[in-house]
Amino acid sequence: MSMFCYQCQEASKNTGCTVVGVCGKNESTAKLQDLLIWLSKGISWFAARGRTVGAGDPQADLFVAEALFSTVTNVNFDSTRFVELVREALSTRDSLRSLVESALKGKGESLDSDLPAFATWAPASLDLDTLAAQGAAVGVMSDSSLNPDIRSLRDLLTIGLKGLAAYTDHAVVLDRQADEILTFIEDALLATTKDDATADELVGWVLKAGEKGVQAMALLDEANTSTYGHPEPTSVNLGVKPGPAILISGHDLRDLAELLEQTQGTGVNVYTHGEMLPALAYPAFKKYDNLVGNYGGSWWHQQKEFESFNGAILMTTNCVVKPRESYKGRLFTTGLVGWDDVAHILDRKEGGQKDFSKVIEKALACESPVELESGTMTIGFAHQTVLSQADAVLGAIKSGALKRFVVMAGCDGRQGSRSYFTEVAEALPKDHIILTAGCAKYRYNKLNLGDIGGIPRVLDAGQCNDSYSLAVVALKLKEVLGLEDINELPISYDIAWYEQKAVIVLLALLFLGVKHIRLGPTLPAFLSPNVVKVLVENFDILPITDAPSDVAAIAAGQ
Ligand code: FSO
Ligand code: SF4
Q: Which atom in ligand 1 lies closest to the alpha carbon of residue 318?
């Protein structure tokens, strides 16, 4: 069986990638990822059984989340790394099994005799081909007789769990305890394996994942803001300074913190790229005068931008794309990110830092970046800043100067149809304010859309990880305006999705009771027509149409 993947918005023909991923994922990697997910169900099985007798291994729970995160779009393309992860999954599962068996024995119990295959499968050999062949046998389409709506709901849940795992892992990196979320991920993964689970039960799991999404984003928000301070309005430099430089991309703020510390006194300037832009608004990073500004745009422009940057580049999470030869030698991955033959910076040891000396050394041997643009842009409108200006916001709403907020969070992507989001931003009435988070903002954050009485018309809450800020603002507005229902707020939702983190953000919004969300540029390929029908009937989700029609509908309060 060939590979099959339909987890992101760029799935081939909006159906699924079957030969090679549009993202660049090759067949072996795709199959190894499927195997890793399947074996994670085996770990989850023993973890759940262990919980019934008070036995468990927190490292195994975290491994499941990191395994899921590593399969998110544009995180890791390196099949060798997936072979290692599969081997680790097997040994994690089997050690957990022993632990659970001895705990059961202590209570006079034993394991059931008919364990599921993902709990017992052992490969004849641990080489790539053997493992990939098993991956092909357990992938998304491996059971062709499965009811398509059940498959769709199982995959919606699994894909949402990948996003949930990513946000949870970010919080764990900042030393937060996330046991409850990690065990939920395992239980929900197991729910996708139950033959008797009905569509209604699976919808219940999907909404529960949304609830956990809110919890994970709140945990991450607390971790980020208590470690690095609350983002504050910040004017960001878009130009360059002469001198050796490092460009840091992705979402991991701890990597940035350690890089900044290690570049002190080296003469190397640090620039943010893509989803690292919001880091420039955190007080903790402002004390570093070698943190110069932001370079370039959203993830999919990276081939051109990394080339002209000239310096060393550090990719901390998604979205990495196929590196050009021109910069492959100065690209570094870290954490769960990987690309064949690209240098990888190892994880920090307990209590220590990652060692970025190779990245710094490379930067020192490189030319200065070529300037792409100049000027500045304002960022730093996470919940604390917006709520600190609550009086001005309420005053503007009451006077009629501010009619509506439009949440345009989510991801950017390559498809030409995404110009829709630029057109919407440009065409919205001047008394509308855009609330954004995630890399979707690069479609309109440099347009200079003005302000309403000093409140910028694009309020950027930060990374996709910070979408929680938008929910906090909405819930606070509901409270101060004395409204019963979140849907009575003067807020429209026009969400751009690309990968699985945007899916958990969507599920979080559904859990919060938000209705009438526009979603685009296309609806997910993993939603069957009947599942779309359920989402339309219960949540009034609608596909985007064209900018003039959607802007007219939004301005009319829809
Ligand atoms: Fe973008 Fe990529 Fe943050 Fe995503 S860089 S697309 S939702 O991984 O992560 O917004
Ligand atoms: Fe295709 Fe997206 Fe899967 Fe990549 S992640 S293989 S582009 S569906």
A: 8
Task: Please report, for residues 41, 50, 57, 90, 118, the alpha-carbon distance to residue 60 in angstroms, rounded to integers and kept in the order given.
Answer: 11, 12, 5, 11, 15
CATH number of the domain where residue 133 is located: 1.20.1270.20
191, 226, 261 - which closes a domain: 226
Last residue in a domain, options 364, 396, 412: 364
Given pLDDT bands bounded at 50, 70 and 90, which one contains residue 1?
A: confident
Which CATH number belongs to the domain containing residue 335 in this structure?
A: 3.40.50.2030
Which range marks the domain in which residue 256 is found? Answer: 234-364
Query: Is residue 247 within 8 Å of 271, Cβ to Cβ?
Result: yes
Question: Where do runs of H (alpha helix) occur along 402-522?
Answer: 419-427, 467-480, 500-511
The predicted model gives 399-421 an average pLDDT of 97
* 461 within 8 A of 470, measured Cβ to Cβ: yes
Residues 6+ apart with CB under 8 A from 151: 140, 143, 528
Same domain for 173 and 214?
yes
Whether residue 166 contacts residue 72, with contact meaning beta carbons closer than 8 Å, is answered with yes
Q: Are residues 112 and 140 in the same domain?
A: yes
In angstroms, what is the span from residue 445 Cα to ligand 1's centroid? 16
Residue 267: both structure tokens together: 């003469």
Query: Which residues fall within 8 angstroms of residue 140, CB to CB, at 6 or more apart?
Result: 4, 5, 6, 16, 34, 151, 155
Does 298 lie in the same domain as 161?
no
Q: Please report whether residue 418 resides in a domain.
A: no
CA gyration radius for the chain?
23
Please tell me the distance between residue 367's alpha carbon and the centre of ligand 2 in angstroms: 35
* Euclidean distance between CA atoms 250 and 255, whole angstroms: 10
**Mean pLDDT along residues 234-258:** 98
Structural domain contains residue 377? no
Testing ligand 2's pocket by substitution, the residue of 2, 4, 10 carrying the most ligand atoms inside 8 A of its CB is 10
With H, G, I as helix, E, B as strand and everything else as coil, classify residue 331: strand
As a whole number, mean pLDDT of residues 164-187 equals: 98
Give a yes or no: residue 46 inside a domain: yes
Distance from the alpha carbon of residue 272 to the mean position of ligand 1, in angstroms: 15
- Contact assessment for residue 437 and residue 469, using Cβ atoms and an 8 Å cutoff: yes
**Same domain, residue pair 95 and 197:** yes
Angle at 270 between CA 267 and CA 272, to 5 degrees: 175
Count of residues in the chain: 558
The closest alpha carbon to 37, from 522, 348, 529, 500, belongs to: 500
Reported as a single tens digit per residue, the pLDDT across 520-556 is 999 999 999 999 999 999 999 999 999 999 999 999 9
- What is the count of structural domains for the chain? 2
Identify the band that residue 222 occupies on the pLDDT scale cut at 50, 70 and 90.
very high
Q: Is residue 106 in some structural domain?
A: yes
Query: How far apart, in whole angstroms, are the C-alpha atoms of residue 63 and residue 60?
Result: 5
Q: Is the pTM of this model over 0.85?
A: yes
Which protein residues are within 6 Å of ligand 2, measured from CB? 5-8, 10-11, 17, 21-23, 25, 73
Residues 6+ apart with CB under 8 A from 541: 516, 517, 519, 532, 535
